Every structure is written in C-alpha cells, then in structure tokens.
Amino acid sequence: MFRVLVACYGKWDTCSELPYILKKGGCTVDIFCAPDSWLLANSYYDNWIDAGIGDLIYKERLVDLVANVKYDWVLLGDDLLINFMNKQIVEKELFLKFGKKYLFINGSV
Description:
The protein is an alpha/beta fold. The chain has one domain (3-104): Rossmann fold (3-Layer(aba) Sandwich), CATH 3.40.50. 36% of the residues lie in helices and 20% in strands. The chain has helices at residues 18-24, 55-68, 79-88, 92-99; strands spanning 3-7, 28-33, 47-50, 73-76, 102-104. It has a five-stranded parallel β-sheet. The longest helix has 14 residues, at 55-68.
C-alpha cells in the first residue's frame, strides 16, 4: 500500500476527485489544504492536515511535512503550489527528499 499526500494551495475543484481515486486504488491518503478547500468535499481520505493561512506558513508546513513524514508520492495540485515549491526548495538535501516524490497533476511531470 502506498502513502500519498495530496496538496492544494488554491481552491481548485479539479483536485477533489483525487482522494477517491487513490483510496479506491488502495492508498493511504493524506490531504494538505485550507479548511475551505474542495479536497475536503468528500470523505475519501485518511488524514486532513491543516495548511494554515498565508503563503509563508503554507510553504513552511508543506516542506516540513514532506521532510519528516514518509510519503511514497506527493501530488501538487495547482500551478501556484508548483511555483511556490520551485522557489522554496533550494537546498540539494531537501530537493532529494522532496524531489523524488513530486508529481504535478496540472499536466506537468
């Protein structure tokens, strides 16, 4: 069984079906988002991790989470988040922890 983190910064509804698909595939699903995110619109996740409010808090919490929790996959759900992480991850050690697990679900890989 894979442990997957689905993260979404914005209020995109396109990510809302991912937890369902992953749970049906047998994954343990954690979601990292704000309380008003579409990711919380269903019950197909195991853990919700509150992302907090504000760019800096969000980025710091996400980097800390990925650095300290073993995920098989980290799914970044929107362009804003991909851009944030591209700018935030500047150390090689952190990149190697985070970078091996990236999957961009907005069409990029």
